[in-house]
Design goal:
- This protein is α/β, with parallel strands linked by helices and 348 residues long.
- The protein has one domain (2-345): TIM Barrel (Alpha-Beta Barrel).
- The protein has helices at 2-9, 14-30, 34-40, 74-80, 123-135, 159-170, 195-215, 234-246, 268-274, 285-298, 313-322, 331-336, 338-345; strands at residues 50-52, 55-57, 61-63, 84-90, 103-106, 111-114, 143-148, 176-180, 224-228, 251-254, 278-281, 303-307, 326-329.
- An eight-stranded parallel β-barrel has the order 3-4-7-8-9-10-12-13, surrounded by six helices.
- Helix 11 links the parallel strand 12 (303-307) and strand 13.
- The longest helix has 21 residues, at 195-215.
- The two termini are 26 Å apart.
């Protein structure tokens, strides 16, 4: 079915197609037609539990951050079979993001370029949606990660405050946190991966974690992971790993999108016309997997979530063989649709 729908969707601008698809699925769910439609497409929740970071994930497949920026589509993604969803990136205050168009397809490369710029409705709107979702109990046990960032107008020297605000607001409603310091679409954000800058953020969240463990003893612990860029020198990833270990954070998400345009099949004219933004999809697979391997070689115990370039079940397996405990998809889902979910969930 997706093979028939994909050419139609690809006639729309990418961001428009995303909104149209998900709003349609949302309407089907409200009409109680989504489950039958998904079954026709061979999709249903798959229960292959895996214990990671003290959490029981229904299965190893997650939807990466950026797809559901405002926690709007959790029920739809759950019914598709995802074991976890990383909502966000969310910032303390709402922001519009960069001017449209800001999401582009590169079909010859099975890739996307985005320069969204942390467009989101703000943490208060996300909390309201998460409260509503949590109020309607599900036996499936979808795990929700909160991907947190800083507002564009917040200077880097005050970034720790923005991450702290998101952490405090979301703590009762998400299962784990991901600190996003690696998007290429917020000016100077990647400078926060510098060890000294990163430590300021980590130290502040560590202090808050201690407070909230006492404040909410009834809640399970909220693991914290750092999301890295693939474009860093190898020593940057190892520096972040050392901080993760020093502050007893749980892990790393490897990796975010890349600013590289190397070895693309798409015409250079098309790529130059699109301009700046983070590249995701198939061209990112090798480098993101290489970062995973380096991190796993350096530490056998740290939790690693592998994301970047997964276009097949084989790609997901390669991530896990490289050391990933869990995997996430986004661009691959745009290009492969339900087939990719089925292939990943079929892995033993």
């Amino acid at each position: 079915m997706y093979a028939l729908l994909k050419p139609i969707l690809f006639n729309f601008q990418a961001e428009t197609a995303h909104g149209l698809t998900m709003s349609t699925l949302q309407t089907l769910r409200k009409m109680r037609l989504l489950k039958p439609v998904l079954r026709m497409m061979g999709l249903r929740p798959v229960n292959k539990p895996k214990e990671v970071m003290g959490l029981t994930f229904p299965n190893v497949l997650g939807m990466a951050a950026g797809f559901d920026k405002n926690a709007t589509y959790l029920r739809e993604l759950e019914q598709m079979g995802f074991g976890f969803v990383e909502v966000g990136t969310v910032t303390p205050l709402p922001q519009k993001g960069n001017p449209k168009p800001r999401l582009f397809r590169l079909p010859p490369d099975q890739a996307l370029i985005n320069r969204m710029g942390f467009n989101n409705e703000g943490v208060e709107a996300m909390v309201a949606r998460l409260k509503d979702y949590r109020s309607q109990k599900s036996s499936y046990g979808l795990i929700i990660g909160g991907n947190i960032g800083k507002n564009k107008v917040t200077p880097n020297e005050e970034a720790a405050s923005d991450y702290a605000k998101c952490y405090e607001a979301l703590y009762p409603y998400v299962d784990y946190f991901v600190v996003n310091v690696s998007s290429p679409n917020t000016p100077n954000l990647r400078e926060l991966q510098d060890k000294d800058q990163m430590e300021k953020i980590i130290r502040r969240l560590d202090e808050l974690r201690a407070v909230y463990r006492q404040k909410h003893p009834e809640l399970p612990d909220r693991p914290i992971l750092i999301k890295l860029a693939p474009d860093n020198a190898d020593n940057v990833a190892l520096d972040v790993l050392s901080l993760v270990k020093q502050y007893q954070f749980e892990g790393i998400v490897a990796t975010n999108t890349t600013i590289s345009r190397a070895n693309l099949k798409s015409s250079s004219t098309d790529v130059e016309t699109i301009g700046a933004g983070g590249l995701s999809g198939a061209p990112l697979l090798d480098r993101s997997t290489e970062v995973l391997q380096q991190l796993r070689k350096a530490d056998a115990d740290v939790t690693l979530i592998g994301v970047g370039g997964i276009l097949s079940g084989y790609d997901a397996l390669a991530k896990m063989e490289a050391g990933a405990d869990l995997v996430q998809i986004y661009s691959g889902f745009i290009y492969r649709g339900p087939d990719l979910i089925r292939e990943v969930l079929a892995l033993d």
